[in-house]
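Exam prep: given the inputs below (a chain plus NAP), describe the expected output before reading on.
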Amino acid sequence: MNRQILLKSRPTGAPGLDNFELAERPVPEPGEGEILVRHSWMSLDPYMRGRMSDARSYAKPVGIGEVMTAGTVGEVVRSRNPGFREGEIVQLQGGWQDYAVSDGRGVRKVDPEAAPVSTALGILGMPGMTAYCGLLEIGRPKPDETVVVSAASGAVGAVVGQIAQIRGARAVGIAGGEAKCRYVKEELGFDDCVDHRAPDLALRVERACPKGIDVYYENVGGAVQEAVWPLLNDFARVPVCGLIAQYNDTTPRPGPNFFTVLRKRLTIRGFIVWDFADKEEDFRSDVGRWLREGKLRYREDVVEGLEKAPEAFLGLLQGKNFGKLVVKLR
Ligand SMILES: NC(=O)c1ccc[n+]([C@@H]2O[C@H](COP(=O)([O-])OP(=O)(O)OC[C@H]3O[C@@H](n4cnc5c(N)ncnc54)[C@H](OP(=O)(O)O)[C@@H]3O)[C@@H](O)[C@H]2O)c1
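Solution:
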């Protein structure tokens, strides 16, 4: 028989056991072009909380009565697909069940000699790739910079900090509890780790990052994000990878919604005009030409006399100006 875990109902807030249901069905028969995989490993990942909900997101929710989604590793026990041989070990999105049938799309062969096959779901799989790409493509740590990562002992966070160090940066983890922090420092070799469950989090993160933070790899959101935020240095980068502390929220938190940043892959970057000083010549040439060509229009709000300046300035702060406010002195 094929044991399966189905989504029975959608949770409101934190999920419970009653949202799941165990079912037993006959082991499926692979059709023409398909393979039957007997799972040996199944991944559990935070994203599954999102799939239990039908809120609009970047991926389709699991339907009620459907098998919960999961990455799996297993052996091909029957093959009717010329691309796969029986006995091969594969990684696929097989779901929370003992067996899965697949047409081979998205199925990756795993070399059991290269590493324990379970790593295809962890450091050599989706979480490892998430850490590698998020850190190097968005975080772009430079030598001697400070990289802070939350959920530091976990699948993604552990890899982030270690790659940061390989790139010559200082790695500071944030993790829950003493044992996790000790592991992050002593076994993973991070430069420091702060326990987010102990009091005075903000103060302890500040102490661990005396030169501020250049990359904050965001895995959790919530209180940890609040503690980290004021310590970000000029031009810091924040790969928004996950917000696990907020996955069970039933109402949006105040302020800009980081779920929008994550789900829609927004780029948000502050700037001060002089960051682009090297573009000044382009600006003058383009805008000057567009003005001469009549492609740009402008409006001035002219106040006459220096003595009118204070009142006009106060008006500007209340929206009383209409167009670029200038004072005509003579
Ligand atoms: N964007 C992507 O494509 C992508 C891909 C994979 C994963 N992710 C995200 O990356 C993050 C880490 O995933 P993972 O697979 O590596 O999981 P993980 O870190 O192995 O496990 C989740 C960890 O999150 C922390 N956590 C849970 N609730 C928390 C809370 N309320 N406040 C602070 N920390 C809390 C816990 O660690 P502590 O006890 O140390 O706090 C927990 O062990 C998740 O947010 C996940 O959704 C994103």
